[in-house]
Known about the structure:
Helix content of chain A is 36%, strand content 15%. Chain A is globular, with a radius of gyration of 15 Å. Chain A has a five-stranded mixed beta sheet with strand order 2-1-5-3-4, with helices on one face. Chain A is built from five helices and five strands, in the order E-E-H-E-E-E-H-H-H-H. Chain A is an alpha+beta fold. Chain A has helices at residues 22-29, 81-92, 102-115, 121-128, 138-150; strands at 2-7, 10-15, 48-51, 54-57, 70-72. Chain B folds into three domains: 3-210, Aldehyde Oxidoreductase, domain 4, CATH 3.30.365; 218-289 and 347-422, Aldehyde oxidase/xanthine dehydrogenase, molybdopterin binding domain (Aldehyde Oxidoreductase, domain 4, 2-Layer Sandwich), CATH 3.30.365.10; 297-338 and 434-715, Aldehyde Oxidoreductase, domain 4 (2-Layer Sandwich), CATH 3.30.365. Helices cover 28% and strands 24% of the residues of chain B. The longest helix of chain B has 28 residues, at 119-146. Chain B is globular, with a radius of gyration of 27 Å. The model of chain B is unreliable at 1-41 (pLDDT under 50). Chain B: InterPro entries: Ald_Oxase/Xan_DH_a/b (IPR000674), AldOxase/xan_DH_MoCoBD1 (IPR008274), AldOxase/xan_DH_MoCoBD2 (IPR046867), AldOxase/xan_DH_Mopterin-bd_sf (IPR037165), N-heterocyclic_Hydroxylase (IPR052516), OxRdtase_Mopterin-bd_su_IorB (IPR012368), TAT_signal (IPR006311). Chain B: GO terms for molecular function: oxidoreductase activity.
Amino acid sequence: MATTLTINxxxxxxxxxxxxxxxxxLRDILGxxxxxxxxxxxxxxxxxxxxxGRAVRSCVLPIGTVANRAITTxxxxxxxxxxxKVQKAWLEAEVIQCGYCQSGQxxxxxxxxAATPNPDDADIDAAMAGNICxxxxxxxxxEAIKLAASGRQS
Amino acid sequence: MNAxxxxxxxxxxxxxxxxxxxxxxxxxxxxxxxxxVQKDTTDGKFAPNAFIRIDRNGRTVLMMPQVEMGQGTxxxxxxxxxxxLDADWSKVEVQHAPPNxxxxxxxxxxxxxxxxxxxxxxxxxxxxxxxxxxxAMLIQAAASQWGVEPASCTASRGEIAHAASxxxxxxxxxxxxxxxxxxxxxxxxxxxxxxxxxGQPLKRLDTxxxxxxxxxxxxxxxxxxxxxxxxxxxxxxxxxVGKVDDSAAMKIAGVRKVVVLDDxxxxxxxxxxxxxxxxxxxxxxxxxxxxxxxxTQDIWDDLRKVSAKDGAVAKSTGDIAKALAxxxxxxxxxxxxxxxxxxxxxxxATVRVTKDSCEIWTGxxxxxxxxxxxxxxxxxxxDKVIVNQHLLGGGFGRKLEPDMVVAAVKVAKQxxxxxxxxxxxxxxxxxxxxxxxxxxxxxxxxVDGKVAAWKYKVAGxxxxxxxxxxxxxxxxxxxxxxxxVDAPYDFANFHVEYVRAEPLSVPTGFWRGVxxxxxxxxxxxxxxxxxxxxxxxxxxxxxAMLTKNPRMLAVLNQxxxxxxxxxxxxxxxxxxxxxxxxFASFIATVVEAEIDDIGEIVLRRVTxxxxxxxxxxxxxxxAQIEGGLIFGLTAALYGEITIxxxxxxxxNFHDYRMMRINETPKIxxxxxxxxxxxxxxxxxxxxxxxxxxxxAILAASGVALRRLPIxxxxxxxxxxx
Lengths: 154, 721
């Protein structure tokens, strides 16, 4: 079925069933592999993207529900103010190890900062608890979010 | 595309950032067809050995014999080479080495393997010499051009200088001349006091492309005409495929083909969604085989029975029988469950098989074994197998196995296009090679408040007997007893035995922390129980037996101070300690934890002090300990794979739980300055968490847990030891 979505400000048309999750459209049809497959059941957050600025799990998001919505992925989040701040803080705090979950972590953090510019620990827990990091970078994720919020980045 | 091209086209883009040098991976797989190919500057390139390539522009490419799976080794290995080469760090780029045991075998294993936290330990001397040799050749080239003595020239940041005449030449300008120099026979390496890169918290080379989705893992491979396959392995270990009815599956839009293997079925589709739906629509009858009734209880009954036998003696000093007959006697058995790896990147491999070749795109810890096993499965010679290495989205030992590549080759053999075989998380959890179950028995006696006799019997799977058979000698798996024979304490009468006990039907493999996983847990749990029996503070008790181990004692003393050991705590809050000398690093850790009324655990604080010798990158050391602690604490809190009807019962992160950010305590890691040879760091933190937490629970509640994961029912308010 022909579908049109707005992804990273561009219109993308492709043929896919309406129940197909956005994750697989991004990865296997559009070749945008920055968004990751981790669990397929919205338990790990590796597939997080923004829909109208809110963090959602693309592995369980049927494309039939997001026509006319603005979808943003990790490839483009750096062009948003909060996304750019988060990416910079992530490198400054040297958060990343294997990096596989970090697309999703950054998307969740960017959505948090866009909605809550100065999050406290409880805000961070609430926004980030859906993102699993098997390398265990949580301490630095917390630090990087605070760094990004503070504007103290070098 | 062949491996050499794909490697040489994989370039790093340099650019400045205020926080440091930004180097980015740029991999070619989906480059636009008209993108200019980076010229392979064989002509004029200085290639003194398998690790260093300097072209006429001074571009310095370092080949990575170890793989990057998050542990930071690409940056640390580069720093070691670049240090002795006196390279300009801002011009350093890295490339994955192709499979080649002759050039890139890990010096410890004789195979191109990344594991056992030994990348820096194994390569420290060879890579320093490789860098220093190249530097000497560049100096010779410059000296000969200037007609001066080599000894009058110096190297720094990618340039050779002759101070007396003020002349300078860059490495790029010297590349051609350096290539024809005779390498010096026995080159001197730097005095550590002259290090400029080693010991600095250099920014990682691999992370800039990990914040913007550009970094490519094996699962991100995209090839022209490629299709995607989802796979179902026989749910019962050792079972086979019986009958498959694919009529419903083939009707699903996007499903292209159903491939039936001996023990698995794959559905190939235009995308993963079609493949996955196709797989769900299959009707598969499995021949479940002889293991179809096995349960966790059967496995434990068997292990307990086998572990009662005498084992092969791995080490014995003093007179253990006599010493055990005196003093205050202690006996305990510690039991650890099966664990899955659950790397965030699910298992995958992309393969294209032709009549006489096989090409693979994946992220693996065992490049050459993948190549040779793929050759067997594809029916081609090893030299016809190309392996394109990728970044690994976590390894943790799972990618020390070639099974996923072999299965993908078997699928790809059935079609004339490349196939990416992706395991769903459910397949990943249910068809792992599991951290074995262990039963560790410790018998000891106390005399005058000290351990006078220590008898430790390890019972569990001999992973090495399968994985590296020549390493399994005299009935002893040297991995399973690694940190049992290498105990940090001074015990006059000391005895370690090993009983090989393969769990019924369940395949076992290396899991981050490897053998010391079980040893550190058993030793440190027993030490706390012995301290209580002796009526002593756990740290005080340990100190008395560490007098001959100054590095261990020093980190223990520091962690006591930094963790506020001995300071008063509220009710049902406790501190627990763990010391361990694993992987040639010395680590002391204190966990502070609270137990609520229903027995749930709240981690309050973790403090670690680590002496890893020379810390090549102290920030990486810190990060590895932080992450390792969380990996280990996750296992202690939640980790258990159970078996029923021959099948793994867990399937995804809802029932194989991971620690999350809201459960993560404050973690403070201190890296001690040291001039000793570097130790391993990628796994040590994993082993520190569980015993330190368990000992904190003992301090808080008086309950001495002897199994993992932690059983909350034993810890509810009012329960007594």
